[in-house]
Amino acid sequence: MDVSKLLAAMTPEVYERMSFAVETGKWPDGTPLTSEQRDSAMQAVMLYQSKYNTEAQHMTVAAGGEIKFKTKAEFKREFATSPESTSNTSSDIARFEHDEL
Q1: pLDDT tens digits, the chain, 101 residues: what are they?
Q2: Which of 30, 35, 53, 101 could bond to 49 as cystine, CB 3.0-4.6 Å?
Q3: Is 11 a member of any domain?
Q4: How many domains does the chain have?
């Protein structure tokens, strides 16, 4: 299949399903991928990312085809400003006795 036709036919939902399959080794319904399916899905995911991935995460293909690598400092900044890191501002720890559990 022609690359441009493949990318035109690939919706974001199809991309997500293929990306899940490549990451986990199985389709969303639980069926394992064959090695040929894994290779083809990985190529399709990388092609899709190279065309549409404008906000590339670490170790993904960014728009333009380059692999995005983040530095340690970039990760620290990203996690320092993430909503998860600021949602629990209390430093209290819940403590229980063994017989209270």
Answers
A1: 687 888 888 898 998 999 899 989 999 999 999 999 999 998 888 888 877 766 666 556 666 666 666 677 776 777 787 555 445 555 677 777 877 76
A2: 53
A3: yes
A4: 1
Distance CA 40, CA 69 (A): 24
Read off the tokens for 75: 């990760």
Task: Name residue 97's amino acid.
Answer: E
Bridge partners of residue 32, in order along the sequence: 26
> What is the extent of the structural domain holding 14?
3-87
Q: Quick check: is 100 in a domain?
A: no
Q: Among candidates 15, 43, 49, which has minimal Cα distance to 35?
A: 43
Is residue 92 situated within a structural domain?
A: no
Short-list 48, 57, 55, CA closest to 3: 48
Cα–Cα distance measured from residue 20 to residue 45, given in angstroms and rounded to the nearest whole number: 10
Cβ of 53: how many Cβ atoms within 10 Å?
A: 19
**CA angle, corner 51, sides to 50 and 57, nearest 5?**
50
